[in-house]
Q: What sequence folds into this?
């Protein structure tokens, strides 16, 4: 089911358990069909997952960070494929060191700062790194200037900046010698994906 990974499938991306099974079903109701709003399903699903991990850590009397390390997964268990790269262990270690996690008192209401209660917690987030082919047109002028055109758009996520940086790095040009045109006349014939879900990526050029 297409929406499986957008709801229950996040568990299989983060944690492994021999006794866990993930399922997702749709029920027909006399209600309007719900749909994505922002971060399709992930924001609420991962929040619920991380709350459950914290509750499990309390029930087992295990440090919540230690529990996540014990359940750490190097594979996408939904598709049974290894990750090409994953540095979450290192992120955990750096975060714990920076915050002094080892000094944390796990007992509720046990930590105070000048009389104010202080709570320390942690959580993990996950999101797809979706990469899809698009077409980019690059025109090089005699004075060493590159004009990059693509049909994608920039909705405030920095597409103009990253495309200029990638083009400059690939062509060996100074950044100021690259201009980018998105969703404008020079780029209308260029194939691209929608600017959503972390999707704009440059994979092919002409």
A:
């Amino acid at each position: 089911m297409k929406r499986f990974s957008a709801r229950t499938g996040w568990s299989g991306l983060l944690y492994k358990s021999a006794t866990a099974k993930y399922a997702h079903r749709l029920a027909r109701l006399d209600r309007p069909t719900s749909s994505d709003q922002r971060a399709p399903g992930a924001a609420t699903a991962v929040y619920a997952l991380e709350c459950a991990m914290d509750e499990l850590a309390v029930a087992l009397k295990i440090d919540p960070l230690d529990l996540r390390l014990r359940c750490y997964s190097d594979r996408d268990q939904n598709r049974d494929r290894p990750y090409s790269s994953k540095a979450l262990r290192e992120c955990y270690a750096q975060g714990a060191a920076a915050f002094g996690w080892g000094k944390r008192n796990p007992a509720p209401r046990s930590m105070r700062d000048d009389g104010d209660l202080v709570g320390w917690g942690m959580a993990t987030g996950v999101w797809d790194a979706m990469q899809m082919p698009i077409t980019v047109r690059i025109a090089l002028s005699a004075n060493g200037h590159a004009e990059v055109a693509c049909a994608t758009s920039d909705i405030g996520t920095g597409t103009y900046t990253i495309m200029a940086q990638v083009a400059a790095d690939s062509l060996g040009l100074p950044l100021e010698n690259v201009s980018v045109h998105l969703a404008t006349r020079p780029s209308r014939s260029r194939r691209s994906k929608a600017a959503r879900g972390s999707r704009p990526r440059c994979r092919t050029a002409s």
